[in-house]
Amino acid sequence: MNIVQEEIQSIIDENNIAQEQFSEFLQDKNNMISELHIEDRLHGELDLSILQDNGFKNVTSIIFEEGELISISNIPDNLEKLVCPYNLLTELTELPTSLNYLDIQGNYLSELDTLSLPNLTYLNINENKITTLDPLPQKLESLFANNAQLQSLDFQDVKNIKTIHVSSNPISVIRNMPDSVDDFVAEYNSSIRFENSVVPGENSKTQDREQENTPKISFNEALTIYYKMKGTYEQERKSQIKKIYKKYEDKAEARLKINEYKHPCVKCGNDVETKFFTKDTILKATCGNESSPCSLNIELDTGGYTHLQRELIELKDAVEDGKKNFIILKLDSLFGYNTDEDTKHQYNQRLNEYNFFSELYESALQENKKIYDNDERSLSLQTKQELFAEKVSTIRGMTNEYNQTNNNEYLQLISDMYIKELKPLANEIQQLRYEDSEVEIIDRSPNVPGTAKGKFMEYIENILHQYPASIDSIDSFARKQEKVMVFDI
User: Fold this and answer.
1) What is the pLDDT of residues 47-75, one digit of tens each?
2) Reduced to 3 states, what is the DSSP secondary structure of residue 227?
3) What is the C-alpha to C-alpha distance for residues 54 and 74, in angstroms, rounded to an integer?
4) Which segments does the entry list as coiled coil (predicted)?
5) Is-contact 311 477, C-beta < 8 A?
6) Which helix (H) or strand (E) holds 380?
């Protein structure tokens, strides 16, 4: 039983009061009301048939706040909007077909029956465990599914969707994305393959904002211009500094003039310099005038890959920190530093954080196992090693026959088997054991005047490095896409 299941069982056993809370909430409400907004935190199981029983037949919108709801049943058939974020729902079934707005972020659902939601236009399943949304509702316009477990998306027949946020998912393929999308965010995913899709610019917020802030230039073009501009600027600046140094016989005065020199900005031409610098993965270039800079502004995100081993260490630390936070929270509650309500609120927040990092850590462990302890590769390696041993035994047998008979046909058979079967098999075994290999050449030749390095082989040392996994597979756990953020020159 995991932490969530333990928490749910604890609520069922000790604090299953949601029905009473909701009944009390309805007591002073007009049964002709269309929207119910329950601001109190509810705890436990809730049966909404109480609405029908008490004459609330016009309710089309129900909004719950963060709490400890563990189930919702008998949802009204005419309900159009349901909001229930950051509770403890593990399933949500028999949703009405009339529903057009569903926000269940921060729960623990592993599946959602989208086939029964033909009128849905807004769906928020952030921070759930849902692995598939198939088929997507045809009327869907906004999809928020960050930090979920989605593996693929297919927008077949979904023609009017405008917003798609699917960061931090193991998505490998997106199919049939329409050109209606103008707000697409998919950060911190594995590399996504788009099939039969109109791919919008990643991380764009709206099409208008994209047109305003994002230039019509590819990343490679912008990067080439950036480094060419930087190289030309630094070369010209260095040339001017040399001229200043030669101009003054007094070198102390020359150094003073060099320190005072400001090379012209590449755009405005004023003697204020241009600042080229790097911050994290962002290449930047701006005017050096701090009080009134010109419009020069370049920001290029070079993206990158997260190293799997580093990711494992960081995620493990995050999981361990989460466990420590639970202990601290319990101690604070035990010694009366926090109220019960504050403790429960903080517990839910920390529980969500803990589960989020635990799932990422588990995913990284599985990826690590796939790379370093792959069952399929191990089985293939074992099979080929056994076959290799058989062929070596056969060659030894033919060698013995040759030694006894001096029949040259055995030599031909041995040679053919070695070239055509044994050597290729050895290469396959090597590839299965070590995906990447490289030789490091170290020249330890003494520095003798007039003698070129590397001339004497006795001083050359070759070191073989072998890696069980390719560098690409180790570094490609999560990719951040490169992009042009600002390019005003």
Assistant:
1) 999 999 999 999 999 999 999 999 999 99
2) helix
3) 14
4) none
5) yes
6) helix 375-405
